[in-house]
Amino acid sequence: MKKDSGRPGQSRRQVLVAGAALAASVSSVRAETFSGKLPWTPGATSAPQPIDTSTWHFFTADEAASVQALVDRLIPPDPETAGGKDSGCAAFIDGQLAGPYGSAKGLYMEGPFQAGTPQQGPQDPATPAELYRAALKSLDDYCHANFDGKAFAELEVADQDALLAGFDGGAIALDGVDAKLFFELLLQNTMEGFFSDPLYGGNRDMAGWKMIGFPGSRYDYREYVEQHNRMLDLPPVSIRSKL
Known about the structure:
Layout: H1 12-19, H2 61-74, H3 89-97, H4 128-146, H5 157-169, H6 179-195, H7 207-212
């Protein structure tokens, strides 16, 4: 497996398998309590709506080009597995930013705001959608000023990697945006897209699940529970295939 994950000294598999724990739904979910009745009607369905990946819902064309280039460096393609671009990570992020996640719905956003520790999570008045919009503009402004007018998507791969390493390490600053915070958010969202159900626009052809051997959204695993240390070798199944 090629060692080009966006983090020096780590293979793509090491980074992505570690990041699989973070690949939960990025949407805010509120718990509800039901008493004395079932929260559904027998025979009825409330299936999630698949993301339409034929168009961009949040990104402009220029922003989409930048994000596709960014995710393809965080998860570079190799002969066995599609990279971030072809696996739909940018489409996943686009769909999330266009929805409740992008507007920080369900989160307290009234302030006061002040710098916190990394363990406290984001302490910023900007929503994810606002952060992405500002960061992508600042990124291309930086590239135009330092690479003969080129946008990030037009740079050589080596230059793209050097910029990402600079953002990650804090060596390169972006005007008006915390570059390291943006890098960490982008990396998290990219991994979420790579391992999400294809219903949400990412993990196209279940590339991420196939890479780590995850069987997907299967209904029942009871017959396998007691079969310890045995590879299941089951083809992955998406929620989308059941709709």
